[in-house]
């Protein structure tokens, strides 16, 4: 289908996303750094220098701006800002503030994520999110981030994919060494309650830093699709993995919708994609329509007036033509959702860079390739194509 008459609204966010640990490099005080170097964790490869974006963030922003993007979502790293409990690095706070100013100077609107999966080692040693006082410790960190977000940051995300944090905690408690062929492990209920509490403590602190800031969090939407007769099973499977986190966002200024593929649910639970399905480098089914389903489901749960931002959407592939095809399909879904009256405020691709995908550099989600030795950045054709759309805010004629 085509949506040549649909122009994305004025002010529509058009950008790409990253996460600090995945691109910065040498995040030595984080829990993930320790895990990467623990043989028992069986991590394929450590992050090491990653993309060296801690030092090369200006190059990254220059490229995004030159390509036509208007928005850049990046995260700040708790383990850098508070490497030791109660000790906050003014230099690191100033570093991230320079990134905010640098984005704005290049015409990029910064979206700042305060927590993207990693925590300081000392926080993990206390017991993580479910430890006594964890909510207060996270709130204190958020308050210390005020100089970063107090001016010129319109959108702040408190916690990225809290549902995946709860799922990973559930898997760890169950002793799971890997995810099942389809679906997700059962989330840990205590962790679910803890991250919701942390989010609710953070929201007023973000608003106190700047009353004009729009604050929310992002949910990993799995696009659960019920086979005939499996509607109740699907709802019961979905709620603890997704809907409880969407419900927790009521009262926020926006919800981040993140999707990549779908999960079919039968009477006995999740069903793997067929053997002949096209798959990405992460072994997920190639399914560009996922983002449309994710937007519609989120609006159904949160209410049609809730502002929605696609904060992650993309594909891990070595074939850039398939990346463009995926984005074409996804953007047609976004356009259709807007035409149908959903309150969609933006689209940010995952990822700006080929980066460290939580254990391996092999999956390449990036619009921009990064040489692992020289760190030279090379924009892929998909980056030029997607960035150009940001200038006109309209899908080109003939896209389907």
TrEMBL record:
Biological process terms in GO annotation: carbohydrate catabolic process
Family: Belongs to the glycosyl hydrolase 1 family.
InterPro entries attached to this UniProt entry: GH (IPR017853), Glyco_hydro_1 (IPR001360)
Record's keyword annotation contains Hydrolase: yes
Name assigned to this protein: Beta-glucosidase
GO molecular function: beta-glucosidase activity
A family per Pfam: Glyco_hydro_1
Source organism phylogeny: Bacteria, Bacillati, Actinomycetota, Actinomycetes, Kitasatosporales
Source organism superkingdom: Bacteria
Keywords for this protein: Glycosidase, Hydrolase
Gene3D superfamilies from the UniProt entry: Glycosidases (3.20.20.80)
GO cellular component terms given for this protein: cytosol
């Amino acid at each position: 289908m085509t949506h040549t008459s649909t122009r994305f609204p004025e002010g529509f966010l058009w950008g790409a996303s990253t996460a600090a640990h995945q691109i910065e490099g040498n995040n030595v005080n984080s829990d993930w750094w320790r895990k990467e170097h623990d043989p028992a964790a069986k991590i394929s490869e450590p992050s090491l220098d990653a993309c060296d974006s801690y030092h090369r963030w200006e190059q990254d922003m220059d490229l995004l701006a030159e390509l036509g993007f208007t928005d850049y979502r990046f995260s700040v790293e708790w383990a850098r800002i508070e490497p030791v409990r109660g000790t906050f690095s003014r230099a690191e706070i100033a570093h991230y503030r320079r990134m905010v100013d640098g984005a704005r100077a290049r015409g990029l609107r910064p979206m700042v994520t305060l927590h993207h999966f990693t925590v300081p080692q000392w926080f993990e040693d206390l017991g993580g999110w479910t430890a006594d006082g964890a909510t207060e410790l996270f709130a204190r960190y958020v308050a210390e981030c005020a100089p970063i977000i107090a001016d010129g940051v319109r959108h702040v995300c408190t916690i990225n994919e809290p549902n995946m944090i709860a799922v990973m905690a559930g898997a760890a408690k169950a002793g799971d060494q890997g995810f099942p062929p389809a679906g997700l492990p059962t989330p840990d209920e205590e962790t679910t309650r803890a991250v919701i509490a942390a989010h609710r403590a953070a929201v007023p602190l973000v608003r106190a830093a700047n009353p004009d800031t729009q604050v929310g969090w992002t949910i990993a939407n799995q696009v659960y699709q019920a086979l005939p007769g499996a509607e109740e099973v699907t709802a019961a499977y979905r709620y603890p993995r997704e809907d409880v986190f969407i419900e927790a966002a009521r009262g926020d200024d926006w919800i981040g919708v993140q999707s990549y593929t779908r999960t079919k649910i039968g009477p006995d639970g999740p069903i793997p994609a067929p053997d002949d399905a096209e798959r990405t480098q992460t072994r997920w089914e190639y399914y560009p329509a996922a983002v449309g389903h994710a937007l519609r489901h989120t609006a159904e749960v949160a209410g049609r007036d809730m502002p929605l931002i696609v904060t992650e959407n993309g594909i891990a592939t070595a074939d850039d033509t398939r990346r463009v095809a995926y984005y074409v399909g996804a953007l047609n879904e976004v356009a259709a959702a807007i035409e149908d009256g959903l309150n969609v405020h933006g689209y940010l691709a995952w990822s700006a860079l080929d980066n460290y995908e939580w254990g391996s550099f092999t999956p390449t989600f990036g619009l921009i390739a990064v040489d692992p030795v020289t760190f030279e950045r090379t924009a892929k054709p998909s980056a030029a194509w997607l960035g150009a759309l940001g200038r006109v805010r309209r899908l080109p004629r003939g896209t389907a």
